[in-house]
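Budget justification aside, the reviewers requested a transparent look at the raw inputs and outputs of the sequence design task funded under Objective 1. We therefore reproduce one unedited record. The lines immediately below are the structure tokens for a 266-residue chain.
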């Protein structure tokens, strides 16, 4: 009986090991799970749905944004995993339900339905809304490059810089067209953020008019990156190494905003 139990225990352990190894391989190297593939420049797009040429324009636009980043690496190749309604998406949900997209090693994983022709992704959490697909690709591509430059041990779901440094930089790069538009003002945007934050009851706030809600550190982090990079001319590398607290930098930014506003009125 004891021997039989030992054999059963060993077999169960072996099966468990094989299942965990297979799941890990699927999660890290998902390309094999998808029926359709398209190679385009530095991208390999994988999906179970038909991949149309419309996605090439969106990928070109996302790459155009990413090229402006100091983390840009011309030799880096991205797997674009379009996994809405796939078995892979269900496995990925085990790592946390909610986000419209994730990055993992070289994989940009888009978990929600997309329409490349209209440059949209349809997010569902915390509520349904439409996201700019170019922004979504560029944001996740920057996460890939953060891990490439600083190492997966410093940029992973369990260990990473403070959230405002982790998310603020991809936001800063992927929202550049908006930030460089003629009517944009960092001073007004900081006021909008503080106003929204004062009214908010939780961490979710509206990032753009009519758009999606995001945790407040995406917005706050982006504004702080704008202040540190555009006004104080720091590089992302310097910001990562800097040990000054989030609170101190935020207060400094508010002081700059107040004095800039005062100056522009006189
Ligand atoms: Zn992110």
């Amino acid at each position: 009986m004891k021997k039989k139990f030992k054999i059963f225990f060993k077999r169960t352990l072996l099966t468990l090991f094989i299942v965990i190894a297979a799941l890990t391989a699927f999660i890290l190297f998902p390309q094999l799970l998808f029926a359709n593939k398209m190679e385009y420049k530095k991208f390999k797009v994988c999906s179970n749905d038909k991949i149309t040429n419309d996605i090439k324009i969106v990928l070109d636009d996302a790459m155009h944004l990413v090229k402006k980043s100091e983390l840009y690496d011309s030799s880096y190749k991205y797997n674009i995993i379009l996994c809405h309604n796939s078995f892979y998406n269900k496995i990925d949900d085990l790592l946390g339900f909610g986000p419209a997209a994730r990055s993992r090693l070289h994989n940009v994983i888009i978990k929600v339905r997309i329409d490349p022709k209209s440059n949209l992704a349809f997010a569902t959490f915390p509520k349904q809304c439409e996201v700019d697909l170019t922004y979504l690709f560029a944001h996740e591509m920057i996460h890939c490059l953060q891990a490439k430059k600083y190492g997966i041990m410093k940029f992973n779901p369990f260990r990473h810089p403070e959230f405002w440094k982790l998310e603020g930089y991809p936001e800063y790069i992927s929202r550049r067209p908006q930030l460089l538009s003629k009517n944009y003002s960092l001073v007004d945007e900081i006021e909008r953020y503080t106003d929204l934050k004062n009214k908010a009851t939780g961490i979710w706030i509206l990032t753009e008019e009519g758009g999606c809600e995001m945790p407040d550190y995406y917005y706050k982090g982006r504004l702080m990156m704008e202040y540190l990079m555009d006004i104080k001319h720091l590089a992302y590398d310097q910001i990562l190494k800097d040990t000054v607290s989030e609170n101190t930098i935020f207060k400094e930014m508010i002081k700059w905003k107040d004095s800039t506003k005062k100056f522009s009125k006189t």
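The radius of gyration is 21 Å. Residues 86 and 111 are 9 Å apart (CA to CA). Computational costs for records of this kind are itemized in the attached budget.
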